[in-house]
User: What shape does this take?
Amino acid sequence: MDRSTARRPGPTPKAPELFASVADQVGLGHRHVENTYNDFAHEVLLPHKQSENGPLMATADVNGDGLADLFVGGARGQSGTLFTQLPNGTFRKASSQPWSSHADREDLGALFFDADGDGDPDLFVASGSNEVDLTPDQYKSRLYVNQGGGRYQHSDEALPMLQTSAMRAAAADVDGDGDLDLFVGGRVVPGQYPRAPRSYLLLNDGSGRFADATDELAPDLASPGMVTDLAFLDHDSDGDPDLFLVGEWMPLTCFVNEGGRFT
Assistant: This one.
């Protein structure tokens, strides 16, 4: 290169914009508002805040019109919101929002699945965070049953007491009885990082009521680590769902389903 004729490089051309936000235009003007909490004032060695892991979302056709609808979880003090989609691609808030009565809990994991076998999607919402001590009322996860047409009702008796700050859940028929069971992954023990929290394998009785079967069928899943995500997958092609977990300070782990028992 001849330095006498060299030129400084010009400005980098701006890349074309491939995506543009249209949330407000289509009726999704949701704003997540975190409440003020300083995790580091209580746990000075935390690598990052554990109280701001949300929000998470879930999608399903809740009212049977063939369009995907959207649930967005809320922070502590802010209700989650269900948006139903209209034929023109816009969204509106559903007329019924029963989770508003549980705005004192922070919504993390959200999962649509058919809990009661009636053909429409029910909604499981995992309560989590790091802001208060682990008590049943503060971290009680919830199941909302679809009564038809996307109208939801909280089922207080559907779930056993889950003593965990949870973040993720997945559904599969783990015992081969024709209904969907749940695995709920614990994310953190509030105030005790990095202690592994409780996780739960819950069996469905067929009507949408769940019982804790962790100690009986999956003792190794009781405290596998600080779970950040999970999935059921038949990795050994034997016809039943195995469970994959990932998490903070834990490797990708597979638990094999052997006749409804996980090892």
